[in-house]
Amino acid sequence: MIFQSVMKRFSSGFYDVEFYLFIVKNPLLNFNFAPMDNLNPAKLIECASIEEIPSLLHSERRVVVIIDQTVKDLYGKYFPFEQITAEASEKNKSLQMAGEIAARLMDLEADRDTFILVVGGGILTDLGGFVASTYFRGLRCGYVPTTLLAQVDASLGGKNGVNLDGYKNILGVIRQPEFTVICPAFLKSLPLHEVNEGLSELLKTFILFSSDSYKGLVNSLMKARSGASDSMSMIAPYISEAARFKTQLTARDLYETGERKLLNLGHTFAHAIEKECGISHGEAVAAGIVLAAKLSVKLSVTGKTTAEKIENDFRLLGLRTASPVNTMTLADAIKRDKKRSGDIITFILIEKIGKCVTYPLPVNRLEEYLYDLY
Ligand SMILES: NC(=O)c1ccc[n+]([C@@H]2O[C@H](COP(=O)([O-])OP(=O)(O)OC[C@H]3O[C@@H](n4cnc5c(N)ncnc54)[C@H](O)[C@@H]3O)[C@@H](O)[C@H]2O)c1
Q: What is residue 223's three-state secondary structure?
């Protein structure tokens, strides 16, 4: 009761400062005033070195780290807290593993004042974020993403969840961590194929909102490929910029009713390609973006040079540009896309590099639109 009435007055705005002081200074109110259903965007913290990260938690009474097994082997010593490990695999992104982690939290007697730090790639931030959101109806948490994909995409925007019976992300919630640490130093140990998984999403971000950053990133990556520079230091600023962009965009549209849909650029194609031939998500996204560019030309949303530039850049960067799946199979798979709405499926098309639009298409004309795209 007292909590509810305090919350009511606190949210009225007028009493903010007065009640904040009342809460933090009143020794009779022995609870940590932190929103458990946190929907505010996570604070992005840029860290140049991994060693700096634990100091961010100096004021926490207790921290438990949920960490990827591989990341623990490489960097576990930098996180001097109690640790729960999980192997990163889609099979482990499951209710069973979430239950096992929660059981470990109970063994450790983690209480509502325990802060959960999730350290790892997108599998861990999805899984650990889901546990942190549901254990005791939600503990405060922070993310330390350690893959490129997680730094520019998976750890941002508040979506978490687990797979069910082989279907991806069936159970989950939207709930923001308190902070996300962007530390490109982790990427030095990331295998190249995992870097490429994140690269398509990084390039996608700039195709969506900044032609200058897209050009700058492509140039830096080309130089890095030719051995002329240290790739990580060259792309670090672009990682931060992309992370900021996704954080801001998803804060404006947390539940994907509007502009958040733009982040699906290339993904309608990618999901269909992945389903049909089992190539990795990152590869499918790269091929999907190239197809979206070609569809944009076909529907006169953009000129030929835009699509040719994207395809050429992706090829030079060693990303996949062609779909291994034929048009008819692709159209069939797209019709089963979960984002289909009745007779309409909405594609994200490219007007120019730096500006994309949503474009609804009637499902019954898909074959016609996709014919000849390759
Ligand atoms: N919630 C979202 O908004 C969102 C968005 C995109 C993707 N996702 C999810 O993200 C997951 C994929 O994430 P991912 O690509 O990061 O994969 P991942 O978490 O499986 O990590 C990839 C591999 O890299 C290893 N690894 C992690 N960090 C490392 C490091 N610094 N050095 C060496 N090895 C390291 C992991 O152990 C793993 O083997 C998928 O489950 C996908 O559904 C979620």
A: helix
> Residue 56 sits in which domain range?
36-189
146 lies in some domain: yes
Among 194, 204, 247, which is best to mutate for testing ligand 1, by the most ligand atoms less than 8 A from CB? 194
Angstrom distance (rounded) from CA 327 to CA 38 = 43
Domain edge (last residue) among 189, 205, 222: 189
Give the pLDDT of residue 238: 97
DSSP string, 56-112: GGTT-SEEEEEEEHHHHHHHGGG--SEEEEE---TTTSBHHHHHHHHHHHHHTT--T
CA 268 to centroid of ligand 1, rounded, Å: 20
Query: 360: helix, coil or strand?
Result: strand
Q: Is residue 252 part of a domain?
A: no
Q: Looking at the structure, tell me whether residues 70 and 206 fall in a common domain.
A: no
SS3 content of the chain, % helix, strand, coil (to 5): 55, 15, 30
Question: Looking at the predicted structure, is the pLDDT value of residue 309 above 60?
Answer: yes
pLDDT at residue 82, as a whole number: 98
Q: What is the pLDDT of residue 84?
A: 98
Q: Is the pLDDT of residue 171 over 70?
A: yes
Considering the domain architecture, whether residues 235 and 333 belong to the same structural domain is answered as yes
Instruction: Report whether pLDDT(40) > 90.
Output: no
For residue 123, give the ligand 1 atom closest to its CA: 19
Whole-model pTM: value is 0.89
Check pocket membership of 71 for ligand 1, CB cut-off 6 A. Answer: yes
Residue 58 CA to ligand 1 centre (angstroms): 27
Is 70 near ligand 1, meaning CB less than 6 Å away?
yes
Residue 49 and residue 144 in one domain: yes
Any idea what the CATH number is for the domain that residue 149 is in? 3.40.50.1970
- The encoded tokens of residue 247 equal 């954080």
